[in-house]
Amino acid sequence: IDVVSSGASYVQSVHVLVDSGAHGRLLQYIKTALRDPGYDGTQIFDRFHTVDELIAEILRPLKVSAEQQLQTTCDRVVLGRPVKYSPDDAVSERAQEIMYKAARLAGFETIGFEMEPIGALYFYHRTSPRRELALVFDFGGGTLDLTLAEVGGSTPPNIIATLGALVGGDDLDKRLMQFLFKYF
Predict the structure, then answer these.
(1) How many CB atoms lie within 10 A of CB 8?
(2) What pTM, to 2 d.p., does this model score?
(3) I want to staple 86 with a disulfide (CB 3.0 to 4.6 A). Which of 7, 91, 101, 121 is the partner?
(4) Residues of the chain with pLDDT under 70
(5) What does the alpha-carbon distance between residue 61 and residue 17 come to, in Å, rounded to a whole number?
C-alpha cells in the first residue's frame, strides 16, 4: 500500500522457506512461550537454542528483506507485542526483554515496542480521511487485544481504552479440544 499524500509507504511481502529434504524441525508457539517463565528454549538436533535466539532467527531474514527492498541499512525496528503477555507483570517484562534481546541478536540497534492493536489502529488512522470511532479487534495466537479510539482526519488518534485478555488462537484451540475430547 502506498500512501502518497502522507509520504508513508507500506510494504508487505511473504517469504517461504521450504526444507526440501525434510530435515528441519517444526517450531510452534514461540511467542506464546514468552509468557512461560519456565521455558528457556529448546534442543534442535545437537544444539540448545534460547528463546531469544529462536526469535532472532525469524527477525534476521525480515531485516535483510527490508534492507534489500528499501536499499538502505535498517537498524531501527518497532516490534508489536500483546497488550499483556501475562497477568503477572514480571512475566510480561521478561517477555519484552527477551524480544529486545532477540532484536539485538538480529542486528537492530534501536528497538521500540508498540501494543499490536495500537499499531494496527495507527495504520487505519493514516488511511481514514474523516474522524470516526474505531474498535480494533486483534485475535492472535495466545491473546485477544482490543483498542477503542477516535481516529482519522488530521487530528492525532485519541485512544480511549486498550484491553488485553489471555485467550487466543493457541489457547482457545487447546481449551476447545480439552472440552471436546470426551466425545472422541
Answers:
(1) 12
(2) 0.74
(3) 91
(4) 1-29, 141, 167-173
(5) 11
